[in-house]
Amino acid sequence: MEGILQLLKFTAVGFVNTFIDWGIYLIVLKTFPAESVLFYTTAKGFSYFCGIVNSFFLNKFWTFKANLHENQGNRFIRFILVNLVGLGINSVSIYVFLNMEVKQTIALFSATFITFLFNFVLNKLWVFRKDKMVAKTSRG
Q1: Count of CB atoms within 10 A of residue 64's CB?
Q2: What contacts 115, CB < 8 A, 6 or more positions away?
Q3: Cα 66 versus chain centre, distance
Q4: d(CA 64, CA 139)
Q5: Are 102 and 139 in contact (CB under 8 A)?
Q6: What are the angstrom distances between the C-alpha of 77 and each of 11, 15, 16, 123?
Q7: How does pLDDT run across 99-118, given as a tens digit for each residue?
Q8: Of residues 93 and 37, which shows the higher confidence score?
Q9: Considering the chain, what is the average pLDDT of its residues?
Q10: Can you give the residue ranges of every domain in the chain?
Q11: H-type alpha helices, 32-103
Q12: Residue 72: exposed, middle, or buried by beta-carbon count in 10 A (0-12, 13-18, 19+)?
C-alpha cells in the first residue's frame, strides 16, 4: 500500500512541477519580452530547473519521507542524474515514436509515461531509499 501511495504522491508532485515550470517560463517571457530562440531556450532551462528543485524537496519530505541525517548533497546529485537520464529517455522515446509514425499526442503521452515510470522507480530505489544503517540501528 505504501508504494501505491508514493506513486500517487509522485504523480501529484509531477503536476505541481509542471505548473511551476510552465508558470515561471511564461512569467519570464512576459517580464523580459525577447524574440530570440536562445532566450526562449534559456528561459525554459531555468523554469525546468525550478521545477526540478521543487520536485526534490516535495519528493524528499512528502512522497518518500527521506532521512534528514543523510548527506543531502549526494542525494541531490543523484536526483539531478536521474532527471538528466530521464530527460534523455524522454527525448529518445518521442524521437522513436514519431519515427514510427505514431501520432504526436500519443507519442508525447507515451514518452512521458515511460519517463515517469523510470523516474519513480529510480527515485524510490536509489535517490530516496531508506538508509540501511538507519534501519539497522532503529531495530536495535
Answers
A1: 19
A2: 86, 87, 89, 90, 93
A3: 16
A4: 20
A5: no
A6: 21, 22, 21, 12
A7: 999 998 898 889 889 999 99
A8: 93
A9: 87
A10: 1-65, 69-140
A11: 37-58, 72-99
A12: middle
Q: Quick one: cell of 12?
A: 501529484
Do 10 and 120 touch, CB atoms closer than 8 A?
A: yes
Q: pLDDT for 77-102, tens place per residue?
A: 999 999 999 989 988 998 999 899 99
Helix axes 37-58, 2-31, angle to 10 degrees: 150
Nearest to 5, CA basis, from 79, 65, 69: 65
Instruction: Note whether 40 and 29 are within 8 A (CB).
Output: yes
Q: How far apart (Å, rounded) are the C-alpha atoms in residues 49 and 55?
A: 10
Q: Which three cell numbers stand for residue 74?
A: 549526494
Neighbour-count burial of 129, counting CB atoms closer than 10 A to its CB (0-12 exposed, 13-18 middle, 19+ buried)? middle
- The three three-digit cell numbers of residue 110, written as one number: 507515451
pLDDT tens per residue across span 52-68 = 999 999 999 999 987 76
User: Model pTM?
Assistant: 0.80
Joined together, the cell numbers standing for residue 22 give: 510552465
Residue 37 in grid coordinates: 530562440
For residue 112, give the amino acid letter: T
